[in-house]
Amino acid sequence: MNTKKHLLILGTASHVGKSAVVTGLCRILAAKHKVAPFKAQNMSLNSWITQDGKEIGIAQAIQAMAAGIEPTADMNPVLLKPKGDRVSQVILLGEPYADKSAGSYYDSIEETHDVLRGALQRLADEYEIIVMEGAGGAAEINLYERDIVNIGTARITDAPIILVGDIERGGVFASLYGTIELLPEDVRKNVRGFIINKFRGDPAILESGLTELEERTGIPVLGVLPHFKLRIPSEDSVSIGDKSSDSSDVHDVDIAIIRLPRISNFTDFEPLERMAKVRYVDLDEDLGNPDAIIIPGTKNTTSDLHDLMESGMADKIRCFNGKIPILGICGGYQMLGTSILDSGIEGGEAATFEGLGLLDIETVFDAYEKRTVQVTKTVKKCGPIFDNIAGEDVKGYEIHMGMSSSKRPVFGDDGCADDSGLVIGTYLHGLFENQNVRHALVKYLAEKKGLEFEDEYIPEQDPYDELADVIRERLDMSRIYEMLGLGPDGF
């Protein structure tokens, strides 16, 4: 492969900012070249459905959007979706492959390498530059022989590498230096620069440390990125830790999201944060006095339903029935029904589970098949929340196993509402990306509290451009262009 077409962003640990750096670089480089993102293997419960119905990690979809292109399965050829008990659903090139334990998955790792090579070659045939992302920490020395996403990608492409460290965690110099020392020599030789991320304060106080790090390793520090709020969707559940469960938000409308143990696609609710106080409530926490409750998606509906019941959270939710809106998305929608019949697809053994009984639906899991599709639906009259937008279109995407029967659909043929119109379920992820839905819900909640509905503030600058501007200002882009064989102006 032409190494000048590839750039690999590795990290000292998870959540150090690799995805954000790749996203920003994709936006910058796409102004002058055809650019695509790539992550060999992603472990995430936040996923995205491509136009052709393939499932990939949401981070690569975001990076593709930053590059101005449509996401494809080749950009994330392996997606692992943890189900619990050390088992993950393996998604290969956007399609469900099997549920596997870590041991059985790594037994076939050579076969997976072939999948990666094929995906990379197809991208290289179409795009001028591929900005690649590693996963977790690059120096997991116990995993080198089976690490396809860091060491594997580095060896397949022989690409120049930038190593990112998070100073907010503390010990950033030790983590950068230690990672370099532990990398295999054939990978270490390709590390061309460091980035220090999430710094609060004056970068001048770091100068002596930066100088010594460069002297000890012979590798330049490309820059120090500041800590700032990203306005792009979160990559995975580790990001929920950045969201306080008891935020002192300026918003008066209070929406409680049930933090299921296997919560997936919580990015569904990030658009609501612009208009409401959004709290993630653990199963053992008090719900407080929310204006609305949302049960989110989950990677394992029956297991999370069991935990919801056993914890007592199901009874707490039922106490609000008829008083405030209770919404369920995907797995949360299935939980709101009367029952779930599982032939063994979800839990491994055939069983019937009692639901919360708030919606007149029954869900059946009878085949290892997943519905993955982008959809446009029309809002139906279904009660006080969405009646004012009835007849309007909404867009979203479905990612689910199991089928639910409904006599009172909400969005086209999808979803269900109860007689009051206050309990609503839907399979549509991305629902609140639709401004009409978002505004209808928050307007209803505000007026019920006697508050005047205030339109949301939409910043003038595109979030991808905002991120790109920070990277341009703080990183030595001329060195990065040089790594890609480009001139000092990026051409």
UniProtKB/TrEMBL annotation:
Domain CobB/CobQ-like glutamine amidotransferase: 254-436
GO biological process: cobalamin biosynthetic process
Pathway(s) of this molecule: Cofactor biosynthesis; adenosylcobalamin biosynthesis
One Pfam family cited in the UniProt record for this chain: CbiA
Coiled-coil zones: none
Segments forming domain CobQ/CobB/MinD/ParA nucleotide binding: 8-227
Catalytic site positions: C330, H429
Family assignment from sequence similarity: Belongs to the CobB/CobQ family. CobQ subfamily.
Identification of the protein by name: Probable cobyric acid synthase
Native source species: Methanococcoides methylutens MM1
